[in-house]
């Protein structure tokens, strides 16, 4: 798989896949909100349907 990281207005990017952040409580990050508005609420609808389960992130520790 090949991927690239781009900066700029998220709603203006042309791509087949996008990764955005969703906080606990199904709260979209600022970038995800911009993309959601451009996609006419698609991300909000996916979250509302429950297609993404809320679960704790794996924890790891690092000792110096």
Summarize the SSE layout with pairings.
Layout lengths: L21 E2 L3 E2 L1 H9 L3 H8 L15
Antiparallel strand pairs: 1-2
Give a verbal description of the structure.
The chain has 64 residues and is mainly alpha-helical. The protein has a domain at 20-53. It is 27% helix and 6% strand. The chain has two helices and two strands; from the N terminus they run E-E-H-H. The chain has helices at 30-38, 42-49; strands at 22-23, 27-28. It has a two-stranded antiparallel sheet with strand order 1-2. It is globular. The chain starts with 21 loop residues before the first strand and ends in a 15-residue tail after the last helix. The mean pLDDT is 81.
**What does the overall shape look like?**
globular
Structural class: mainly alpha
Q: Percent range for helical residues? A: 25-40%
Please work out how many helical segments DSSP would assign. Answer: 2
Q: What is the subunit organization of this protein?
A: single chain
**Tally of extended strands?**
2
The Rg value, from CA coordinates, equals 14 Å
Straight-line N-to-C gap: 34 Å
In what order do the strands lie side by side in the largest sheet? Answer: 1-2
Order of helices and strands: EEHH
């Amino acid at each position: 798989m090949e991927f690239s990281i781009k900066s700029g207005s998220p709603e203006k990017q042309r791509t087949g896949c996008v990764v955005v952040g969703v906080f606990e409580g199904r709260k979209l990050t600022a970038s995800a909100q911009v993309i959601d508005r451009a996609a006419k609420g698609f991300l909000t609808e996916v979250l509302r349907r429950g297609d993404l389960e809320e679960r704790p992130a794996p924890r790891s520790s690092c000792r110096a």
